[in-house]
Task: structure prediction
Amino acid sequence: MRLFFTKLFSILTKHDKKFLFILIFISITVSLIEMIGVGAILPFINIASNFTNIHTNTYTEKIYTFFRFDSDINFVITIGIGLLIFYFLRSLLNLGYFHLLAKFSKGRYHLIAYRLFENYLGMSYRSFIDKNSADLSKAIVNEAQNMTALISGLLLMLSEVFVVIFIYAIMLYINWKITFLISTILIVNAFLLTMTVSRAIKKAGISREEHQKKFFEIIQSSLGNFKMMKLTSSTESILEKFNLASSGYASANIRNETLTHFPRLFLEALGFGIVIFMVLYLIHKYQSDISGALALISMFILGLYRLMPSANRILSGYNQILFYKSSLDIIHNDLMYDAEKLQNIPISFGQTLQLDHICFEYNEEKPILEDISLTIHKGDKIAFIGESGSGKSTLIDLIIGLYRPKSGTISIDGTRLDESNIKAWRSKIGYIPQSIYLFDGTVAQNVAFGKPIDDVQIKESLRQANILEFLEMHHEGINTRVGEGGIKLSGGQRQRIAIARALYGKPEILVLDEATSALDTDSEAKIMEEIYKISENKTLIIIAHRLSTTTKCQSTYRLEKRKLALKRLI
Result:
């Protein structure tokens, strides 16, 4: 339990903790009012059933005298109206309190989801490639929502604990023997419920998380490979996997929903049983009717009427915490990732980009690159070739600042590339990847890719990529919608939009990571011709799969056996 609160408080902000302590204070106040509401019934019943009790009771006699009532019936009516107003105001106070509870618990969804998304975006590229994007989506969409349910359950428990304590206090004051007996019965039954029902709910929560994880993975992998799935006619096996994940997830929720109602129904039956037992006990004790103990019985019935829902909410809150505890573990672990602390100190690229004795590995003792040294002058056009898996893309990722070398240095005009200037360096790079990602938006939105949209600059970038005329003639220009993944465009058109995106920030360096490998020879030749023209006054770095794309490069390097060798120099 201590670890649970440690994880929870590490997720909550300073403002959240203050809000939580305010809620606890309000909860105590509301509980005191609840106790007064329960305790006020017995005196009212006493004076209403026998007016002489008004004057035999010290407190009611003082109130009667102070306000100068002229008759007992007026006094009782006034007290009754006062209680009606009190209970109405109590209900309004409770409504306001439950609104604050909802505001705190449900309002945390936005903050937790935002912090998760912020943390994921702040991951290093090296950390990100080790994560499953389906897991990240699930954490933001579902686990953050489940986290609010867990917080709601905790607040529900806290709000009712004080109510139970204060009601027990007044019941002990009235008759400690009966209260002790009721307490023993409730504690024993609560223990049995937590050992049986709560354990089953905890298992259902673990099952929910496991099946939901598979659920997201299947959806993402299937929709992301829709074309291949249709071609291979593999829908049956995918649907079978989805069926198992979906039905397992539904089954876990069904078990939780069913078992959640069990404590309420059980405690209701137990409450009625206690009342009947108490009546039978008093009849047996006095060997007569119980008219003399009517006020006492009414008081305990009212106390149990208020106590049982509180006991049920405490158990429900506890079970809710157990069911969604895995969400707390997931969110806590994901928020513990150290985001990159990168700065944007300006860095100038006027002469050379220098790689000195660079080494890199993904796993210990399994190097990808060893002792790579290279000098790239501003305006150079160079290419890297090599077998698949030789480390070409890894070398590019090191150059553009996505990876940090295990050893060795990367310098720009003699200034070492590090966390202080990496943002400024990345802003100088226009990157065109092999796999083009276009989201379901307009051409303008895809070219800007999160940057402010400048129509003039977007058109200029599209014109340089030789696609603006086509878009304006056959579509809606920069407002053409591309469809998810750019499905409404051909491969060559997507490639040209990717080039326009790379050019939009007016980069000093263009990097092509096998950017034309998916095109036919003729299309590739045309696009490469355009790229060479565009990069006339820029530094151009190419990863090539065809030597024909490197003919205009001054230098071509081959990566082989983790080493770099100059293959051709113009």
